[in-house]
């Protein structure tokens, strides 16, 4: 325990002496200042009391929900999860290359401490950068948002363990490359490359999920249209029977039946497209299972801090089918992938339901398995290396 505390204290002193550590602290303070400056007015956003004239207003959104989403989507998802993470990697990438340099490793290994124990301690000290940054940022945000809204949300401090876990995914890759190459620059660049590959893999699955959901909405739209068209055909046939000598009514029956057949063909094509997209989504989901879920790990904060009800679209009155009126109207084209009316609010709600339904064990557990595999290789190489 004394050795661990000594290494952590040394790591803190090293961080305290680095310019990047204090630059990150200053930027965090500026982000919190934005939270202090922005507010909800009656006609839109305000900035230090100045009316901006756009964005949500106090009448359209609850202030507590607004600041929680601002904290998550701006403070966490943009600042901490991207910019601050790059700065943290740039700062901590040198830990293992410097440790393994001539002279430094000899002095450390001369002390009564095993190599694997030293490896674990140095990895933990590398997480110290993110832990301190996030803790300070969350504390300041907690005070500012609490003062502005009167809601003292202790759940905001969940960002500390979530961001440490998120950073550990990437830092494990940085440690592996640092042990293998002994180069700070190489380990940093290779880690950024791995991060980009993870980003592509995660977004490929999410993109295909979105296409799959759109296709399901399209299929549902066609099914609704088919049911309505059946009513139109029945209405046209009844009118044609009542006016057997009227060619106009007979022509409308033919048109209604033709459109019904077109809709059936359209539905078959839509079902085939959905099956194809579902197959590719299943493949990308399996690939994603083996990768760190960086985006979904961050999204856990929104799941825990904002209820699903606050993210649901406002329900609108249903549109009653006017079969008799359409039977007398002009022919309408069948819906297709590109001309059916997409309900974007419902699409967002369906995606949120799907993503929020994924368990924490799958999101974090499988990501930590990936991290454990990288750290195992790095620890084995560190243990076996002849310094």
Please provide a brief summary of the model:
It is elongated, with a radius of gyration of 29 Å.
Key words describing this protein structure:
75% helix; elongated; mainly alpha; 387 residues; 3 strands
Which stretches of 5+ consecutive residues score pLDDT under 50?
308-338
Beta fraction: under 5%
Number of helices: 14
Most strands sheet = 3 strands, antiparallel
Secondary structure: number of strands: 3
Q: Classify the secondary structure makeup into a structural class.
A: mainly alpha
Overall pLDDT level = 83
Which word captures the global form?
elongated
Radius of gyration over alpha carbons? 29 Å
Q: What percentage of residues falls in helices of 4 or more residues? A: over 70%
The quaternary structure here is single chain
What is the ordering of alpha helices and beta strands? HHEEEHHHHHHHHHHHH
Strand order of the largest sheet: 1-2-3
- What is the CA-CA span between the terminal residues? 26 Å
Structure description:
- By secondary structure, the protein is mostly helical.
- It has helices at residues 2-16, 19-37, 63-92, 95-99, 104-109, 115-126, 128-149, 159-181, 184-242, 247-289, 294-305, 323-328, 344-356, 360-384; strands at residues 38-40, 45-47, 50-51.
- A three-stranded antiparallel sheet has the order 1-2-3.
- Helix 2 (19-37) runs parallel beside helix 7, helix 3 packs antiparallel against helix 11 (294-305) and helix 8 (159-181) packs antiparallel against helix 11.
- The radius of gyration is 29 Å and the shape is elongated.
- Residues 308-338 have low confidence and may be disordered.
């Amino acid at each position: 325990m004394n050795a661990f505390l000594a290494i952590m204290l040394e790591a803190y002193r090293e961080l305290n002496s680095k310019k990047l550590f204090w630059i990150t602290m200053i930027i965090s303070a500026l982000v919190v200042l934005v939270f202090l400056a922005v507010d909800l007015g009656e006609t839109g956003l305000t900035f230090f009391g100045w009316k901006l004239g756009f964005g949500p207003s106090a009448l359209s959104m609850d202030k507590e929900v607004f600041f929680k989403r601002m904290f998550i989507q701006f403070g966490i998802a943009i600042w901490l999860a991207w910019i601050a993470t790059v700065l943290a990697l740039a700062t901590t990438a040198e830990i293992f290359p410097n440790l393994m340099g001539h002279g430094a490793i000899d002095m450390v290994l001369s002390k009564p401490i095993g190599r694997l124990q030293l490896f674990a301690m140095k990895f933990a000290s590398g997480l110290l950068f993110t832990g301190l940054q996030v803790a300070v940022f969350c504390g300041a945000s907690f005070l500012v948002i609490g003062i502005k809204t009167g809601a003292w949300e202790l759940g905001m401090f969940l960002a500390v363990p979530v961001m440490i876990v998120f950073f550990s995914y990437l830092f494990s890759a940085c440690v592996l490359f640092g042990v293998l190459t002994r180069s700070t620059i190489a380990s940093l660049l290779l880690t950024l490359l791995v991060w980009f590959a993870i980003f592509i893999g995660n977004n490929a699955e999410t993109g295909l999920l979105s296409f799959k959901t759109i296709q399901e909405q399209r299929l549902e739209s066609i099914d609704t249209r088919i049911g309505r068209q059946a009513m139109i055909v029945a209405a046209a046939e009844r009118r044609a029977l009542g006016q057997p000598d009227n060619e106009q009514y007979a022509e409308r029956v033919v048109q209604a039946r033709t459109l019904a057949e077109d809709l059936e063909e359209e539905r078959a094509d839509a079902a085939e497209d959905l099956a194809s997209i579902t197959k590719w989504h299943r493949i990308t989901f399996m690939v994603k299972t083996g990768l760190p879920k960086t985006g979904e790990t961050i999204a856990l904060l929104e799941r825990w801090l904002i209820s699903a009800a606050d993210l649901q679209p406002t329900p609108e009155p249903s549109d009653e089918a006017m079969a008799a009126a359409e039977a007398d109207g002009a022919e309408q084209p069948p819906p297709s992938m590109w001309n059916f009316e997409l309900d974007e609010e419902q699409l967002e709600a369906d995606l949120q339901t799907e993503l929020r339904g994924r368990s924490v064990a799958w999101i974090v557990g499988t990501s930590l398995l990936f991290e454990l595999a990288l750290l195992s290789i790095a620890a084995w190489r560190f243990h076996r290396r002849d310094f």
